[in-house]
Design goal:
The protein is mostly helical. It has a single domain, classed as Up-down Bundle (Amino acid/polyamine transporter I). The protein contains 20 helices and two strands. It has a two-stranded antiparallel ribbon with strand order 1-2. It is globular and about 70 Å long. It starts with a strand and ends with a strand. About 55% of the residues are buried.
């Protein structure tokens, strides 16, 4: 049964919780407990990161920008996020609903900033879904052309991806987790086959023994800061562990465990993959290729050389499934934000409709799908390039918005535990999340100053692409202020929905 705790008007006095869904599928209820375990949550997070897309598409650009410092390009963001996870996982057992950062920020910094942050999340997760659907269409086009000699318009491919993501988002969440787990397993397997081959064959002139790429002095490279703008995006989406708390089995244990595993795996796997690329080419050879015309095929060409053309072709095909899986993961995240805001009466009540058959946020899925349809219809009508325009332009508000959310959430964690530590140490409640906030806001500043690396666009276009983020924040604060003045009961009820599990 849905209940709300009596709420203080000051933030942080109560824990945001939710209810289990009834069988009638009415709006405003909680999501159904689907028995998601640690593995399921890890699949959602790591699939959203799209490891194959990162290693094949971003690592060559990271090497081009940061030179031999590229390996540290993944270690540094991983360290920052692990510091964030120290406080995040301390707070997660106390905040258990589908609101994730919205709920954390409300309890730490107040409801008005939380509503603004939630609208940033809506913008960012929808943008990332659009970005990755566009990536799927581009990679699918390239794969069909290079492997099968088939030329096809990107429009039907985009329609296929939108429909597939919508259907998997609507069905029971564990089905999507299985699809993500399969896609993730295949892309990681392909990368491991390549990397083991490089190691087993000794690398380029014994390059596997080089310590050059792990010499801390390489971080003085002039392009190191700019490279972090590219590499930090490889970790966004780990918040999904908390987004699925209502649907998780024993969230007090599974959410923290999945968060650490996901961040740790991504940090180590990306770093190992960069090292293997340097092994395959040798440090000088990798830099030469990365700075040449063949940068986009650096990883694929190396796969063909060290293993065989079949692996390169397989990887190109799996690049499509990698992008699709990531799109599905971000679609699920966006749908759950829509659901949460509608349940809080910040969006129309119909958006909080829960499927009686699958326990999924059907209203949120419908809204996210409609956004996809509208954006891609406009792009098709305008003749926009799916990669140079839709993919790159939507990545900017997506990556920057999520990094900003993480920074605000880190501050919220410090402020939440400032009132009461709940038995945790000062390291876990203040020092670690405080250091994480500094690192995350530093990444935000770098992203803004080097935004052209993400968009390949001019200054005016970049301003327009980033404008939705501050507008969403200000709009959310204004909406919450309106609630406080004109609908005080609804304002006081924000983030107070409970569930007994």
């Amino acid at each position: 049964m849905s209940t709300r705790r009596p709420a203080d008007h000051a933030s942080g006095s109560d824990h945001a919780r939710s209810t289990d869904t009834g069988s009638d599928g009415q709006a405003g209820q909680g999501l159904r407990a689907a028995g998601l375990g640690t593995a399921h949550l890890v699949f959602f997070v790591v699939a959203a990161a799209a490891p194959l897309t990162v290693v094949a598409g971003v690592v060559p650009l990271a090497i081009r920008t940061g030179g031999t410092s590229a390996a540290f390009g993944y270690l540094v963001p991983a360290l920052v996020l692990l510091l964030f996870a120290v406080g995040f996982t301390a707070m997660s057992p106390l905040i258990r609903n589908a609101g994730a950062f919205y709920s954390y920020i409300a309890h730490g910094l107040g409801r008005r900033l939380a509503v603004g942050s939630a609208l940033i999340a809506v913008v960012s997760y929808n943008a990332m879904t659009i970005c990755l659907i566009a990536g799927f269409t581009f990679y699918a086009q390239s794969m069909l052309s290079s492997v099968f000699g088939v030329t096809i318009s990107w429009i039907p491919l985009a329609a296929l991806a939108i429909a597939g993501v919508a259907l998997l988002g609507y069905f029971k969440v564990t089905l999507g987790a299985r699809v993500l787990g399969l896609a993730l397993g295949l892309e990681v397997l392909v990368l491991l086959v390549y990397e083991i081959a490089v190691i087993g064959k000794g690398g380029h002139q014994g390059a596997q023994f080089t310590a050059q790429v792990f010499d801390p002095s390489v971080m003085t490279h002039s392009g190191f800061g700019a490279m972090l703008v590219l590499t930090a995006g490889g970790f966004i989406g780990f918040e999904a562990t908390a987004l699925y708390a209502e649907e998780a089995r024993d969230p007090a244990r599974t959410v923290p465990r999945a968060t650490y595993i996901a961040i740790g795996f991504l940090g180590l796997f990306y770093t190992f993959s960069v090292w293997c690329v340097f092994m395959a080419y040798g440090p000088d050879g990798a830099l030469t290729v990365a700075n040449g015309d063949g940068v986009s095929n650096l990883t694929f060409d190396s796969m063909g050389t060290w293993v065989g053309p079949w692996l390169s072709e397989t990887a190109q095909a799996l690049l499509c499934t990698s992008a699709f899986a990531a799109a599905l993961a971000f679609h699920n995240a966006a749908a759950r934000y829509h659901f949460t805001l509608a349940r809080e009466k910040l969006l129309p009540a119909a958006v909080s409709y829960v499927s009686p058959a699958h326990g999924s946020p059907a209203g949120g899925v419908a809204v996210q799908t409609l956004i996809n349809v509208v954006v891609f219809t406009i792009a098709a009508a305008a003749g926009a390039d799916p990669y140079l325009v839709v993919f790159l332009w939507s990545s900017a508000p997506g990556v920057l918005g999520i990094l900003l959310l993480e920074g605000i959430a880190a501050v919220a964690i410090v402020m939440f535990f400032r009132r009461e530590r709940h038995g945790h140490s000062i390291w876990r409640t203040a020092v670690a999340p405080g250091l994480a906030a500094v690192g995350l806001f530093g990444l935000v500043a770098l992203s803004v100053s080097q935004i052209d690396l993400l968009t390949a666009a001019d200054g005016v276009t970049n301003v327009l692409l980033l404008a939705p983020i501050p507008l969403a924040l200000l709009g959310g604060v204004a909406l919450a202020t309106y609630f406080k003045r004109n609908r005080p009961d609804d304002y006081a009820a924000l983030t107070t929905l409970e569930v007994d599990r």
